[in-house]
Amino acid sequence: VWRSSFQNAQIAAAMGTHLAGQNVANGVFAIAPDYAAGAEVISGFTSAFESGGGRVVGSAKPAFAKTTDYQPFLAQIQQSGAGATFCFFSGAEAVTFVNQYAQFGLARTVPLYASGFLTEGGVLKAQGDNALGVQTSLHYSDQLDNPANKEFVAAYTEKYQASPTCFSVQTWDAAEVLHRALGNAAALDGDTISGALGGVGAIETSPRGPWSFDGQSPKQQIYLRKVEQGSGGLVNAVTGDLGVQSQVA
Prior knowledge:
This protein has about 250 residues and is α/β, with parallel strands linked by helices.
């Protein structure tokens, strides 16, 4: 399996290292759905955060695809006294969690951090102003200021009347690396193509910025993003560079 996308733990570890450096008072509460991806995210975040001197003061695992009322978990966050919350949700759960987090009043006192899928794509519009100020880590934002991304955003928006997401870019890059591999492969069997993928080198023209394979997963820049009001609506503004992150064992 070759990934042109990400590892769950990779994205979360970058935020763990960042938050450890922020010396969050009273520690962080970690919450993610009770399934494989949620476990990978919390493990990656916790390992990096604690390695940097951070302290996880509580955690919760709501039932995946079944939880619609997060109030009991929000009460746990409040009672923990944590200075911040780190979470992983996506899709409909991301919308519900962010909206209830704000409605519960936690957004005013306990800053919310997450893997970027919490506010990526269409969920951001559904979250509305409740998402303002949420900070996330991810390998892409349509707000990245580089020539390849500006060209990609313009072409994608014209074609689909919507802004691209990390899913759009990593699929584009999958086609790019496969194109390069096929150009160098002596045959079309799986082993030959896999070997050719190992020789594609750095992808310098990606909208996400330069990246390369480390093993069979991306070694790539991770960005700190913050939901802000842009000229055309809410955006994941790039507010920092979390450095190059390789795959997490």
